[in-house]
Each structure stands twice: as C-alpha cells, then as structure tokens.
Design a protein that fits this description.
Structural class: alpha/beta
Largest sheet: 10 strands, mixed
Helix content: 25-40%
Radius of gyration: 21 Å
Bound molecules: nicotinamide-adenine-dinucleotide
Distance between the termini: 48 Å
C-alpha cells in the first residue's frame, strides 16, 4: 500500500472542498504516489467544516483556530485556502510549525506579505512549500509545455497568457471579499488570477524584465447584499505588456491578461506561443484541443489535435476520453504529493521563488499604471 501523508485543511470554502473531492477520488490515480489523508479541518464557518466531517471519516480534529492543527504531531502537511489578507501570518506559522504547505495564490496580499512568507521558508528549508495552480495540468497544455522543452518553436516572437471571467459584468452581483482591497489586496484581479497566467511562462524560465500595465476599475460600486450599495475599488481588468527573456537571454514580447469583465468568458484560461519555427495554443474553452501550426511552403496552417485523456500522471481513465477542471486539480495534487515525497516531476506546482517574481511583476504593474510608464522589475525591492 502507498504511503499516507496526513493533512490539515485551513479554509474549507470553495477550494478547500476541491481538495477534499480530489482526496475522495485518489483511487482514480494509478500512479505510484503517497495518498493524502484529511485528519484535521479548520474554518470559522461550521457549515464549511461539517461538509468534511459528513464526508470523511478520517477527520479527527475540527477547529476554528488554525494554531490547534499546527500543534498536532499527527499532521504532516497543510492545504491553506484562506482570503489573501491572512496568507502572510498563517502561511508563515504553518511553515514554522514544520508542516509542508500547499498554499493558495497570490501567496501574500502584497510584496511585503510575500517576503514574510519567503523568510519563513528560508528559515525552514526542509519544509516543502508550493503554490496551487491547476490549469497547466490539462493534457493539451502539457503537450504545449513539451513543445517548449523540446525547443520546437525556434526563436520566440511573442507569448500571451490570460485568465478571464465575465460574471462581474452583471452589476447586480453583490460585492464579496475578492472585490475588497482590504481582504483581496490592491492587486485586484491580478492577485486573484495572475499566478494562473504566470505558471507556465515562469516555470519554463521565461522572465519578464519590465512591464507597462493598463488597469481598469470598471464597476466602481456594487450591491452590498443587504439592500445598499458600497464602493468597489479593486481592479476589474488588467493587461500587462512585458519585455521578457528566455533562459538563453533571447528577448521577446510577453503579454498577461487577467480580466473579470471579459464578454463571454467563463473561467477562460489560455496560453499562446508564437515562434519562427512553430506556434501553439491552448484555451480551456476547448480543453481537448492542442492547436499548433505546420509550415505549408512559406505559410503556416493551424492544426487541431484532439489530445484526449493523456495527463502527466497516470489514471484509470482511457486515453480516448475528455479531461476537465477537477481532473486538473487531481493532477496538481498528485504533483504536490510527489514533490513532498522527494520525487522529481516533469512539470510541478508554482514554486516560492516564482511567487516572488509574480509579486515583483504585480507590484511593478501597480506602479506602471499609476505613473503611466514602463517599470523595470528590478525597481521593486
Ligand atoms: N486555485 C484556484 O483555482 C483558486 C480558485 C479560487 C480561489 N483560489 C484561492 O483560494 C483561496 C481561498 O479562496 P476560496 O475561493 O476558497 O474562498 P472561500 O471564501 O470560498 O473560502 C475561504 C474560507 O476561509 C474561511 N475563513 C476566513 N477567515 C478565516 C479565519 N480567520 N479562520 C478560519 N477560517 C477562515 C471562510 O469561512 C471560508 O470558508 C484564496 O487565496 C483564493 O485566491 C484559488
């Protein structure tokens, strides 16, 4: 039988439950990998923890005080999915308690908060810490990543990555914590969606050097859900244009788009790579499709490969079937479990060093938008 790693969950909301669901169908994986076991749950909302106690007979500890879970010797690792204003304190405490951590983005509400978390990691080098991001685990995106690693694109012309939603275009949608600066952070949509767009580029060594940012606050007020209206100050849409370099120092253009007001988009995550030898793209709207170009004489034709269910980590599902969001979550978790077990993975979760680069980019983007100029990332310290 495979090894078990005992988990505590801090924050049992939308994402906490996704982890629970992945654990519940761990048998879906045929990969040799340690199994997560949920032994403790923490949330201040008892309905949220009740979902876990109702569905998992492994849960021994239920609390509204996360420090209680950190004191337990029979908890090896924590998944933490809390609002952004709590990341710095709670993530640092988890790491200092010697528990492995899969934390959620943006990994600190701002640059200073991220620095606090990174300091705790530096002081505890034996603890494995990663940031959640699941979309790159779609098989068609994995194929695109293989093309990058195999250098199939030749000289890169431009890379575009984005994550877009449209539900905020409904101006009657009440405000929630993800639209409040004090809880979500000044980054707004960039903090919420940015790391998802940066995962593939940063992981393959494509680094933004500078940024020109256009940020828009389109809905300046929202219903408060109690019959009133309150100001809504977070950025709804962001477009970041960067000069980037690859590992060999070649320069190219890189564009990141994070939008909550994108007509027609529902959880639309994409990456597009244009190169002189070939181009390719993946869009979660069409999750089975790996799109790539083939040269026809001096011209390029777009081809579509229906990739099927061919993920990085093996499962019971036949290769002819389709892959979805919850499958991507399971693959991300498998990757994290392998990394916690000291195994190398072909493509892993977002690393703490990458969260630092992310915070430099987003902090530079805020400055760029404010001062209406290109900001070099090295200016952010
Ligand atoms: N990976 C993804 O695709 C993805 C998607 C959505 C959100 N997220 C991230 O996950 C994190 C959580 O987001 P969510 O959508 O699950 O939020 P959520 O609001 O659904 O859940 C947060 C939970 O934290 C609990 N909580 C808040 N303050 C607490 C405290 N002081 N002590 C204990 N519990 C507390 C709330 O009661 C709630 O149940 C955020 O960092 C967010 O950016 C990631």
């Amino acid at each position: 039988m495979s090894k078990k790693i005992r988990f505590g969950i801090i924050g049992c909301g939308l994402m906490g439950r996704e982890f629970g669901s992945a654990v519940a169908r761990w048998c879906h994986l045929t990969e040799e990998v340690a199994k997560p076991e949920i032994v403790g749950v923490c949330d201040r909302n008892t309905t949220a923890t009740a979902w876990f106690t109702d569905n998992f007979d492994t849960v021994r500890y239920v609390t509204d005080d996360y420090k209680e879970l950190l004191q337990k010797e029979d908890i090896d690792a924590i998944y933490c999915a809390l609002p952004h204003n709590l990341h710095a304190k709670v993530y640092s405490d988890i790491i200092r308690a010697g528990k492995h951590l899969l934390g959620e983005k943006p990994f600190g509400i701002d640059f200073e908060a991220n620095a606090e978390i990174l300091k705790a990691i530096e002081e505890n080098p034996d603890v494995i810490v990663r940031c959640a991001s699941e979309f790159p685990f779609f098989p068609a995106c994995q194929e695109l990543i293989r093309w990058i690693k195999e250098d199939k694109f030749g000289k890169i012309i431009e890379v575009r990555a984005g994550f877009k939603h449209s539900s905020d275009m409904d101006l009657t949608k009440p405000i929630n914590w993800k639209r409040m600066i004090e809880i979500n952070g000044e980054y707004g949509c960039m903090g919420d969606l940015g790391i998802h767009t940066q995962h593939v580029p940063f992981h393959v060594g494509w680094t933004p050097k500078n940024v020109y940012a256009v940020l828009s606050n389109i809905a300046t007020q929202r219903p408060d859900g109690k019959g009133g209206v309150v100001p809504c100050k977070t950025w709804d849409n962001a477009t970041l244009v960067c000069d980037a370099t690859d590992k060999k120092g070649n320069e190219f253009a890189m564009v990141f788009e994070t939008k909550r007001m994108s007509p027609g988009s529902t959880d639309e995550w994409y990456i597009e790579v244009d190169g002189l030898d070939a181009s390719a793209k993946f869009n979660s709207n069409d999750p089975n499709a790996f799109m790539y170009t083939q040269a026809v004489g001096k011209e390029q034709a777009w081809c579509r490969l229906n990739i099927g269910y061919k993920p990085q980590f093996k499962t019971i599902t036949g290769g002819i079937f389709e892959f979805g969001f919850t499958d991507a979550i399971l693959q991300m978790w498998c990757s994290f479990m392998k990394e916690v077990s000291g195994e190398e993975v072909a493509f892993g979760c977002f690393t703490p060093e990458e969260t630092l680069l992310s915070h430099k980019l987003l902090t530079a983007a805020l400055k760029s938008n404010k001062e209406k100029r290109v900001v070099v990332l090295d200016e952010v310290k």
